[in-house]
Amino acid sequence: MPATSALRRTFAVIAALPLLTLAACGYGSQAEKDDTAKVAAGAKKTDGLDTVRIGYFGNLTHGTALVGFQKGFFQKELGATQVKPAIFNAGPSEIEALNSGSIDIGWIGPSPAINGYTKSDGKSLKIIGGSASGGVKLVVNPEKIKSLKDVKGKKIATPQLGNTQDVAFLNWASDQGWKVDAQSGKGDVTVVRTDNKITPDAYKSGSVDGAWVPEPTASKLVAAGAKVLLDEASLWPDKKFVITNIIVRQGFLKEHPKAVEAVLKAAVESNKWINANPDEAKAAANKQLETDSGKALPAAVIDPAWKSIQFTDDPLAATLNTEAEHAVKAGLLEKPNLKGIYDLTLLNEVLKAEGASAVGDAGLGS
Questions:
Q1: 20 φ, ψ (degrees, to nearest 5)
Q2: What is the distance in angstroms between the CA of the first residue and the CA of the last residue of the chain?
Q3: Angle between helices 278-293 and 63-70 (to 10 degrees)
Q4: Are 233 and 126 in contact (CB under 8 A)?
Q5: CA 167 to chain CA mean position, Å
Q6: Can you give 28-68 as a three-state secondary structure string?
Q7: What average pLDDT is seen over the chain?
Q8: Is the Cβ–Cβ distance between 112 and 83 less than 8 Å?
Q9: Which residues contact 344 (CB under 8 A, 6 or more apart)?
């Protein structure tokens, strides 16, 4: 098989590979029920559903979901329908859970959303809203790397082959004129695919010289002595790019639009509260992380990390299309047809009711 075909095949199947998650249930861990998520007296079930299952990562870039659960916004909007969280470590396992019906709605990065959509010929999911921009940095060992040109010849960690940050780093390296074999990670710079939970230890041991990673991993590395060399936001127009989307299983969207609308209302409410109360929102997100993982982030990590993330209802659709082009350029994806990946109808209805402006799909809507 030619090298390019092998790379594309690798990227194409990655969404189907079950990865290690935080629980033994197969897809994501079930977080403890939050005492703040009370069901109002007399509340009725939404769309007749007993439960709605929502997936997300234990990343600050998924802060909308973290705050939404911690503050009880999801439960409030769903009434007597119980909201159940499932926490994931990586996009492919969340896509698998969505496809199998183990979750209904999820917060996820652009690359797995693109891959899940294209691999299913446009039948598995829809992006129904935005959530966050930014929160991704290139952090390095300042003793080994003092400037961007010094990255050449070094070992840089990314979370996973073909994931959002992996594609971004490969594209940036290419723009520097460096050649890297995307599948093996070998070339003018060595890409070391490393789980975000392991990356800080890999940095401390000297196994990697830096990392292109999302928050809070970037700030964990800085707390360990690393230096921020580049904020990915600086590479994008208006310093905005999609890092987290809201996706839904298409069958669930068709059968239970009221439940989807309720989750979107909660997401919009969460983002509004986050932006109006940044310090309280940071504390709420950290408390939810503690509930989910048993450990909160120290101030030295969460304070700088939280500042670098923008929470937005806008899915920043044009940047998703650009990120897909970067994956094609790297040889990790055949040129995809993303027409129909977005359905922002319900989100724009929610925004209109809130007196907010509608958001666009960059021509990639249903």
A1: -65, 130
A2: 35
A3: 80
A4: no
A5: 14
A6: CEECCCCCCCCCCCCCCECCCCCEEEEEEECCHHHHHHHHH
A7: 90
A8: no
A9: 128, 129, 315, 358, 359, 360, 361, 365
Please choose, from the candidates 250, 237, 157, 261, the residue with its C-alpha nearest in 3D space to the C-alpha of residue 202: 157
Strands 105-108 and 155-158: unpaired
pLDDT tens-place string over residues 311-344: 999 999 999 999 999 999 999 989 999 999 999 9
Q: Strand 105-108: give its sheet, edge to edge.
A: 29-30, 82-88, 51-57, 105-108, 242-249, 125-134, 309-311
Q: How far apart are CA 14 and CA 166, in angstroms?
A: 13
**What is the distance, to the nearest Å, from the Cα of residue 281 to the centroid of all Cα atoms in its chain?**
18
For residue range 226-257, list pLDDT tens digits in order: 999 999 999 999 999 999 999 999 999 999 99
- Beta strands 125-134 and 82-88: pairing type? unpaired
- pLDDT-derived band of residue 366, with 50, 70 and 90 as boundaries? confident
Which amino acid is located at 162 in the chain? G
> From start to end of 237-316, where are the E strands?
242-249, 309-311
CA–CA gap between residue 57 and residue 78 (Å, rounded): 21
